[in-house]
Design goal:
The chain is an alpha/beta fold and about 130 residues long. It has a single domain (about 5-120), classed as Rossmann fold, CATH 3.40.50. The protein is built from 5 helices and 5 strands; from the N terminus they run βαβαβαβαβα. Strands 2-1-3-4-5 form a 5-stranded parallel β-sheet, with helices on both faces.
Length: about 130
């Protein structure tokens, strides 16, 4: 079953690649280009999953994660960091900020969607209801 996946990413080529892959695997990608628009899209659209860069304009991914997980209406939506921040401790910082998962950029097109779908299955989302 297809999932509605919000991709919050300010880098156009990265956004296009992720949305292309999601669409190719039958999911419905939604887009936001900065953290504030992304948070508004989560509240408005209630996607099944959110993929979020950390280094975003207007509201960074850490702040977005904190706000999303503090809001009872959206806190259960899985939130996955997909970021070029790949130094020691970056993954732990993302998880502490509220992200449910972490993937390093550059993404691997061959495995990206399968990695993302694990968060849907783990949460009993569309991929886990069958």
């Amino acid at each position: 079953m297809a999932a509605r996946v919000l991709v919050i990413e300010d880098n156009r080529p990265s956004l296009e690649l992720m949305t292309y892959l999601l669409h190719a695997f039958g999911h419905t990608p939604l887009e936001a280009y900065d953290g504030l628009d992304g948070l508004e899209a989560i509240l408005r659209e209630r996607p099944d999953l959110v993929i979020c860069d950390i280094d975003l304009p207007k509201l960074d991914g850490y702040a977005l994660a904190g706000r999303a997980k503090a809001d009872p209406a959206i806190r259960d939506i899985p939130l996955v960091a997909v970021t070029a921040l790949a130094l020691v401790g970056d993954r732990d910082r993302a998880i502490r900020a509220g992200f449910d998962g972490y993937l390093a950029k550059p993404i691997e097109p061959e495995t990206f969607v399968r990695q993302i779908e694990q968060f849907l299955t783990a949460r009993g989302g569309p991929m886990g209801r069958g």
